[in-house]
């Protein structure tokens, strides 16, 4: 008759992702004639579990290179933007052993400029997109079936010697894949 054992292990107990597109208004020093370039740089963030959601708080710099005075002069304006994204966990294992969770967040799409325009009032209107993946890791229980009295001798014929490895095709997994 088989026996069962309970194993306590760390596993992903909650997971979610969020794509965000937001608009920022930036005031230049001079009335712009045209936008020559727009970059989102110096992105950094922190993630923590708040209730049953992951909160990602961070900053990034929006730098806009623009011309003014009828395209005779240029300047760069930079503004640091704070953001907060709440990521809803799509599935969650409530059978955790403790309330000590670890939050792992990674950037799927770095914050980047989607569109930049000059408003009629002479301000920059910048659309920024970003995407994050968040995983919550916690201790959970697994039940496994244990085979009854398996003797080690039963597995002796399963050992491989070096000669058997010589015939292995090392490109087995890459064959048939499209490039």
The sequence of SSEs as H and E is: EEEEEEEH
SS class: mainly beta
Terminus-to-terminus distance: 51 Å
Q: What is the strand tally?
A: 7
Average pLDDT: 87
Shape: elongated
Strand proportion, as a percent range, falls in over 45%
Largest β sheet strand count, sense and barrel closure: 4 strands, antiparallel
Query: Count the helices. How many?
Result: 1
Strand order of the largest sheet: 5-1-7-6
The percentage helix is under 10%
- Rg over C-alpha atoms, rounded to the nearest angstrom: 27 Å
Regions with little confidence, pLDDT below 50 for 5+ residues: none
Description of the molecule:
With 179 residues, this protein is an all-beta fold. It is built from 1 helix and 7 strands; from the N terminus they run E-E-E-E-E-E-E-H. The strands form 2 sheets. A 4-stranded antiparallel sheet has the order 5-1-7-6, with no helix packed on it. It has a 3-stranded antiparallel sheet with strand order 2-3-4, with no helix packed on it. The radius of gyration is 27 Å and the shape is elongated. The two termini are 51 Å apart.
